Amino acid sequence: MIETFYDIFIVGGGINGCGIARDAVGRGYSVALAEMNDLASGTSSWSTKLIHGGLRYLEHYEFRLVREALMEREVLWAAAPHIIQPMRFVLPHHAGMRPAWLLRLGLFLYDHIGGRKKLPATKVLDLRTDAAGEPLKPQFAKAFEYSDCWVNDARLVVLNARDAADRGARIMTHAKVVSARRISGGWQIGVEKDGQIEMVRARLLVNAAGPWVDAFINQALGENGKKVRLVQGSHIVVRKKFNHERAYFFQNDDGRIFFAIPYEGDLTLIGTTDHDWTGDPAKVAISDEEIDYLCAGASEYFREPVQKLDIVWTYSGVRPLYDDGASKAQEATRDYVLKTETAGGGAPLINIFGGKITTYRRLAESVLVEIAKTIGAKAKPWTAGVALPGGDFAVDGFDQLAGEILFQWPFLGAAHATRLARLYGTKAKEILAGTKDAAGLGMLFGADLYEAEVRWLMRREWAQSADDVLWRRTKLGLRLSVEQAATLDAWMKAQTVPVS
User: Fold this and answer.
1) Contact 16, 360 (CB under 8 A)
2) Are residues 42 and 32 in contact, defined by beta-carbon separation less than 8 angstroms?
3) Is 456 within 8 Å of 430 (Cβ atoms)?
4) Please, are residues 110 and 55 in contact by the beta-carbon 8 Å criterion?
5) Any idea what DSSP says for residue 345?
6) CA–CA dist 489, 454 (Å, integer)
7) What is the pLDDT of residue 232?
8) Where are the beta strands (DSSP E) in 12-45?
9) 304-339, pLDDT tens digit by residue?
10) Which long-range contacts (C-beta less than 8 Å, at least 24 apart) are formed by 374-378?
């Protein structure tokens, strides 16, 4: 049996794994990546969906992490202006919690240590006259408004994988690494897909398995050790609570913070929680206690209380943080930690702990430094300033792009054209190529999801099931009925659409 050989083999198709694959293949390494489920099916699709510096991390003196994250905001926004957009955040001053001078100091640092160029600076709001005060209780009279960005997290993962594949990387989904052992000259790796095991070889192995980073070390390598701390974060999505496009940054009386963010046009996303998780990461789910916590916290601020009846969707995930011995989950470091092992001169293994969506690109660059040390350097860093698929337009050019799509395909309607532009950027034109009317889009599955879009997602973005399409490639799971989702799933299972 002939085994395929790669310079680098990556375990895990979340944001870290896909970001590393993109960077590495773009430098000239041969790269393969295996994800046991769908891309972004773990932690990377369960975030608060922010590209942010992490204002609260300043309280824990994580200045390097905050500065790096702040510097990345505009880099990532420029690379993917379709799925990343600037957002203003309103931080009400709450008497009895963090004093106004401390908030002002933190926001001064936030404005000045990260190389902000295009995002507007912090300003003070009078909530008695500003629209941001309308949905809040009257005791909140003053607030600070600052800038960060919103991101479609799951699509960011897929776009990195797509760009990596376009540059020559092999991306394998629903492919589980079942064995990995050091041999002369590298690694021999067993990958199970569709009931078959393929053996491949690689000079270097990257463990980017996220919540399963320890499990991979234990199971695939037969080594023991616990270095990851799993912290559960849960969110609720409720009916729209306010009629403007700004988000809220709220403080809770336990010292934690949480957000209320405009979501999918007519909804509000509220989260997140911080609890240690000791079970199977695949079985994490929001608890009644977390729902009560988020409803009570938001109701402390909003005039109209947030009740369980308002909830239309919930989601929960676990963050694979490095176990630094912090006593509270919210105090555990959010910084990434890389551990390179060579087993006394053997084939190198790089284990990745922690990390944030905001700093995934910088994490990838740090991993490439380690790779260069062990198997030799190739090209220099290149990803800053290079657009992700569909992002090849100006950061202020989204409305123009959506308008162009609507002008060329007027039968879509403004809402449909805008949704396609927001998800796919300039690649929306590939989906629509050759269509002259709605009939040309093929079967309608519900909402504005047509066969043409689903086929493109199967061919270009590794979608294999209704869940892949409805909850990770789009968020139309919020719009389709259970019966419509089942019809879509059955239709997809009946198709043969090879990824290209």
Assistant:
1) yes
2) no
3) yes
4) yes
5) T
6) 11
7) 95
8) 31-34
9) 999 999 999 999 999 998 887 665 666 567 788 999
10) 374/204, 374/340, 374/342, 374/348, 375/7, 375/8, 375/203, 375/204, 375/348, 378/27, 378/28, 378/29
